[in-house]
From TrEMBL, chains A, B:
Its cofactor is Zn(2+). This is Galactose-1-phosphate uridylyltransferase. Signal peptide: none annotated. It comes from Mesotoga prima MesG1.Ag.4.2. SUPFAM superfamilies: HIT-like.
Length: 335, 335
């Protein structure tokens, strides 16, 4: 049974997969694994994944059969288990929670060779609708304290399958990084009585030097204190703490800016590995005044080394103002 | 001029290398770089590094010439500059400090092919003496608020040269990760009136299941909430917040447990890439009751992906109790 364990010093929770027996040898050659020709996310292989949780598919097609355009299934090797109750217990001085949670995969397209940068705007929009639907369904479970939607693109970014997909992990605790954002935003709000993300949107659109793209509802920019080269955030212009409350119009404009930003990165950096993470408040966390949902995109171009791990302090060799300039230069027209 | 910039939400400082002009193309093939046959850390190439800051060498040898057994120089591409004053200024809503600091390289041996796991105990002891000497010298500068000593071993862990070396970065702010440890330890101290690290040493030595090696002064163990497979901490048994206060006897026993732990990892995992980070309080930070210096070793066996970046929450597929068992099984006898 997986366990959540808490670091007693900095209060970071980790998931320990206590039951997956792995020997040291399993780690040694893990990196040489080559993907097989078989893909469980292709049409016709639906029976090789766990059963469909939801799918967008024609009404006349059956569950777990071809025809879908977006499909959500449980992760075959879930990090957490929804059949466990999130009981808390102590182990001497340490704190533990039984490994309750969910771990889902959002298959973004039936096209094995597509990626989010090259999908149509319409298809990206459907994926965003799936995010919204899963978030709104899961946040009704009061045992779930946080829901993270994220994407690993490319082997260097942690993807084990090339077929374009994102993931969702729901946890019985608010993860450290998100709790820090919420606490930091709350502190800023107490000091200024304004949302820090709204202030960033204002300064970024005013200053313009770090902006990559902007439309009526969203702005994509390189954050002033970017950790990584070409790190890019997409932030809604109108204050909203919960992604689940996104409107149909906003989904349209979010899909356009998301696809365009990924396409700019794809073209400028030759389809680099990247991660993106959707940071959102969820129903039941009272941070609606000061928290503000957003998406963080991080191309994986540099290695994180001892200094970064040891200090939480990053060295970024690419000023965000230069990165924004390079990304703005890229055309998002179809070629 | 490099700049330190602060994230206004979670207060993480980053170093932006504003002057190193890099284009997107520079990132694309960066990973294919192959090390040249020339090594600036070999005997005879001393003139190709910045001048020696200190070295352990026979009295009859000249600075920047062969004969040394440990040598410290400035990093050729320093992330921070000791000739800049750490002035603070604002940029709209953002905070900036001019890029003051130092970035040094500790060359651990003249032997091009050695690594800390395979060096003699005596040679490791000399490296530890060099750490102590640099720490004690630099902490006298009141502009320096923190000093991090760390090591990147192997390309996957961020090392750009194979010749065994560690690094030191001194910064005008306390980095986020360290500030969190200090704050967490202070909170624990207020609650229990005991040091959290002392409590961990007690529970770990009592329980034994996560212990890798123990001697009179130190214990090496897998932390209960380990983020990574085979993550190992070395903690002094007697409370001490500042590594700079380490005694000659402790240096002896620290060198033995450090070399042995690295050798166990080297043998169990076939010389994996790893990072280690020395976390210590420094003179002038008043945390002597509750903070406790220690060394964290992190083999780089799994990829950090979107979930970890997005949440600060780690999935560890190797229970620390199993990892400790595997590392205890390894013989540290010379073969």
């Amino acid at each position: 049974m997986p366990e959540l364990r808490k670091d007693p010093i900095i209060k970071r929770w980790v998931i320990i997969a206590t039951e997956r027996a792995r020997r040291p040898h399993d780690f040694i050659n893990a990196k040489e694994n080559v993907e097989s020709a078989f893909c469980p996310f292709d049409y016709g292989n639906e029976h090789t994944t766990p059963p469909e949780i939801m799918a967008f598919r024609p009404a006349d097609t059956a569950k777990d059969s071809p025809g879908w355009w977006v499909r959500v299934v449980q992760n075959k090797f879930p990090a957490l288990d929804s059949n466990i109750e999130p009981e808390r217990f102590g182990h001497g001085m340490y704190d533990v929670i039984k490994g309750f949670g969910t771990h889902e995969v959002i298959i973004e397209t039936p096209d094995h060779n597509a990626s989010m940068a090259t999908l149509s705007y319409g298809q990206v929009r459907e994926v965003v609708w799936a995010y919204k639907e899963r978030l709104q369904t899961l946040e009704k479970d009061s045992r779930i304290k946080y829901i993270l939607i994220f994407k690993n693109h490319g082997r260097e970014a942690g993807a084990s399958l090339v077929h374009s997909h994102s993931q969702l992990i729901a946890t019985p605790i608010v993860p450290k990084r998100v709790a820090e954002e919420i606490a930091g935003a709350a502190e800023y709000y107490r000091f200024r009585e304004r949302c820090v993300y709204c202030d960033m949107v204002n300064q970024e659109t005013l200053e313009g030097t770090r902006v990559v793209e902007e439309n009526s509802d969203f702005v994509a920019f390189e954050p002033f204190a970017a950790r990584f080269p070409f790190e890019t955030w997409i932030v809604p212009k109108v204050h909203s703490h919960n992604f689940g409350e996104i409107s149909a119009t906003q989904i349209e404009s979010f899909s356009i800016i998301l696809k365009n930003t990924l396409l700019r990165i794809y073209k400028a950096l030759d389809n680099p590995p990247y991660n993106f993470m959707l940071h959102t408040g969820i129903r039941g966390i009272d941070e609606s005044n000061h928290y503000h949902w957003h998406l963080e995109i991080v191309p994986r171009l540099t290695r994180v080394a001892g200094f970064e791990w040891g200090s939480g302090f990053y060295i970024n060799p690419m000023p965000p103002e230069h990165a924004a300039m390079y990304l703005r230069e890229v055309s998002t027209e179809e070629e």
